[in-house]
Automatic annotation (TrEMBL):
This is Isochorismatase. Gene3D superfamilies: Isochorismatase-like. Pfam families: Isochorismatase (PF00857). Keywords: Hydrolase. GO terms for molecular function: hydrolase activity.
Length: 186
C-alpha cells in the first residue's frame, strides 16, 4: 500500500505551551523547537501540515487562544477548531484528511494525556497509521504524576497500540518520521 502522510499539530496554543492558566507545559522551549524542526521537514517534503486548535483554551482572538507564534500556520494551511479532547469529534478533520488521501499521521502537540492521546487513538479507529513523535508532545504535572512521567508513560503505552490493523508507533524526532515503518511490523 502506498502511504501518504500528513503532520498533525494538536493544540500547540500559546495558553497551553507558555501558560499561565493551563501551562506552561514541561520543557516548553524544547517542545517548540522540536515541533518547528518536524514541521520544517514536512514543508521540505511537501507534506501537508494541519493544526488543531482547542476552543476551550481561551476566547477566540485572545493571545492564549492563538497557535504559538513560533508555530503559526501558513495562510494556506488548514486549522481545525475543536470543542472536545478528540480532534475528530464534531470537526471536519477526517474529511480534510480523506480529501488529501492521507493514511498515515505524524502527531505532535499538547497535552499528552488528553488531546494528543485522544487524537492518536481515534486516528487508528478511523484507519490511519500513526507516528507519535516521542519528543514532540508535552503536558503539565497533575496531582499524581509529574509531566515527565506522564509523557514517558504515554510513549510506552501508545507504542504498538492498535485497533484491528492501523496502529501507533512512537518515534524520536531525529528519525525519518515521514517514511512510515508500520508495514515492516505487519
Amino acid at each position: 500500500m502506498i502511504r501518504k502522510t500528513a503532520l498533525l499539530i494538536v493544540d500547540a496554543q500559546t495558553g497551553i505551551v507558555d501558560g499561565p492558566a493551563i501551562g506552561p507545559v514541561f520543557q516548553n522551549a524544547a517542545l517548540v523547537t522540536t515541533i518547528k524542526k518536524v514541521r520544517k521537514e514536512a514543508w521540505k517534503r511537501a507534506i501537508p501540515v494541519l493544526y488543531v486548535q482547542d476552543t476551550d483554551v481561551a476566547e477566540a482572538g485572545a493571545d492564549a487562544f492563538a497557535i504559538h507564534p513560533e508555530l503559526a500556520p501558513l495562510p494556506t494551511e488548514t486549522v481545525v477548531l475543536k470543542q472536545s479532547t478528540d480532534a475528530f469529534h464534531g470537526t471536519d478533520l477526517h474529511d480534510q484528511l480523506q480529501l488529501l488521501e492521507i493514511n498515515h499521521l505524524v502527531i505532535t502537540g499538547c497535552k499528552t494525556e488528553y488531546c494528543v492521546d485522544s487524537a492518536c487513538r481515534r486516528a487508528t479507529t478511523l484507519g490511519y497509521d500513526v507516528t507519535l513523535v516521542r519528543d514532540g508532545h508535552s503536558t503539565t504535572d497533575n496531582a499524581v504524576l509529574a509531566a515527565e512521567q506522564i509523557i514517558a508513560h504515554h510513549n510506552a503505552c501508545l507504542h504498538g497500540l492498535g485497533n484491528i490493523d492501523p496502529f501507533i508507533l512512537v518515534r524520536d524526532s531525529t528519525e525519518d518520521l515521514f517514511t512510515p515503518t508500520h508495514d515492516t511490523y505487519r
